[in-house]
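Re: the multi-chain job from yesterday

Posting the exact lines I submitted so nobody has to dig through the queue logs.
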Amino acid sequence: MSQQQSTPPPKPTPIPQQDNEFYWEKAKAHELWLRKCSDCNEVYFYPRDISPCCFSRNTEWIKASGKGTLYTWGITVRPPTPAFREDAPFVLAIVDLEEGCRIPTNLVGIPKDPDPEKMAAHITHGMAVEVAFEDRTDAISVPVFKPVDS
Amino acid sequence: MAELKNAAAIVGAALSDEMGKVPHKSSMQHHAEAAHNALKDAGLTKDDVDAVFTAGPGTLQLAEYLGIHPRFTDSTSVGGSSFVIHIGHAVSAIANGLIDVALVTHGQAGQSSRGRAGGDPTAMGTQYESPYGFIGAPQNYALAGNRYMHEFGQERTRDAWAEIAMSTRKWAQLNPRAYQRGDMTREDYDASRWITYPFHLFDCCVVTDAGGAFVITSLDRARDLPKKPVKVLGFGEGHDHGIISQMPSVTSLIARETHKQAFDMAGITHDDLDLRMIYDSFTYTVLLTLEDLGFCGKGEGPDFIKSKTLGPGGDFAMNTSGGGLSYTHSGMYGMFLVVEAVTQLRGEAGDRQLDVCNTALVHGTGGSLSSGGTTLLGID
Ligand SMILES: [Zn+2]
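And the result, structure tokens for all chains:
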């Protein structure tokens, strides 16, 4: 009983790794940065030094515009872990960024309703979205996306 | 390359003693029981085994637990499809004379495990998806299924998913070991609670404790063993991503590639099949797999399903055990596809036995729609 009343445990927080420390540093400053291959010009997610497109080592960091469209989404009604108990129902999303790569995220700013079909009425595939940031801990902020007009 | 078609056969296949809700048994107990039962079924002993295959826990732990010192070891672990993929690996090793008897095992206390959840913090899914609640298969697969609805029509997709759920349940009603055997109407399907929209509860597999195992040896040796050999006719495997957000298209599975090699090797076509065992972690998994295996074109799955009768007595026998949706799903379900195909091919399926079952397709999907393995099996 008291378990149900208590604050949910913290959501999973990434532990920055050697290949993505820069990404999380920038996210902390509420900026979204991506890796770009200087040889084939492909922009890719998630960050890694060697391009997964042509295997070039000639890659760089670029600052993303933060704009994109909604590739697909779902609404989690049954929280997958207790950490998400108070968030549910919430919107899972995969966003196609303007730069040409795809990022997993949450779609925020959708009126919450216990009936996911009512929430779904506010969401369409391909809708324009833009980045926002959620501060999770002192060290970690995560990029989320919201409808452009909200 | 050695001739792979008809090089080897499955000569034993079995389940663990108890399945469903088995709170008093660990995952390894399910492994060991299934291995014991499968070897007995094959008329072989532990000492005959010189090659071990498993996924989840590696073969180091498995072989130690069983007391086997193999000379060939394969822990290929690419999700629930792994055991289907192990077949091709074992056949390749047998055809090349590297091994004699391969044991493939699975055990998972999917419901009753005393283990602790929580992924490797350095895994890509943990780093980039878990913070958003992409945790567990329903989340990842629902995202994909929703895109399918968008591309190919919401209502017809929903009808197809419901039909898959209901017809699979009808098969489960004929299987005494099935976990869910109650009637399911369309109203029941529609009224089942939301898990992750657009998935209802009845779009999702059951969660059980279960184990299974099978034994493969050369066709020559198989002919001297008690059970009718189930010949491996062809196989193919592959994957095109790990985590769902990296999937090139969430409406196209690697099955589009894996089935080609399997059919080419076997020298048969879709029309030769009597049974299709299609991984059904979710209703959507089945719809997508049927298309990518080439039973129909992309986006045509809903019409194809409408044109067939999937349940008992129908014209398109599929998932006759009751599938992951109703029979059993311990987490890595692929093992049970193989065991059911062997059971049907041997004519040992009891009330759910098909009148004619000489050729079967097994297709496993693992990870987040990530990996695929197609295997074709046949009996003389
Ligand atoms: Zn490149």
